[in-house]
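User: Could you go from structure to sequence for me? I need the amino acid at each position, not a summary. Structure tokens:
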């Protein structure tokens, strides 16, 4: 009753093409360390004067707000706010579990 299906000509060509590609590699996989352009290490600095203007003009600011308004990554904005807190320029006034709210220290 059943039996195997007849393979179309297009499928035969595809099957032969993949077999040829495998034979040309001679050894299979490529080593992980080989080839390809290396990724450049990018360091992003927050423009301090621009960031301080944003913080001074807002009642409170979050890391996400600062990152969006200055155009940097969240990690860079977070690092800037943490360093500013240590210097005493900004204070943490609320938030929880990494989602902190910061406010400029009034002089």
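Assistant: Here is the amino acid at each position, in order:
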């Amino acid at each position: 009753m059943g039996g195997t299906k007849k393979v179309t000509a297009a499928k035969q060509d595809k099957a032969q093409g993949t077999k040829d590609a495998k034979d040309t590699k001679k050894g299979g996989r490529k080593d992980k360390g080989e080839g390809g352009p290396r990724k450049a290490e990018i360091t992003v600095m927050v423009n301090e004067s621009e960031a301080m203007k944003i913080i001074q003009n807002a009642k409170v600011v979050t890391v996400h707000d600062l990152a969006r308004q200055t155009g940097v990554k969240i990690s860079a904005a977070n690092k800037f706010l943490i360093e500013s807190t240590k210097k005493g320029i900004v204070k943490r006034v609320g938030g929880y579990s990494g989602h902190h709210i910061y406010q400029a220290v009034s002089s």
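One structural detail worth keeping in mind: Residues 9-25 form the longest helix (17 residues).
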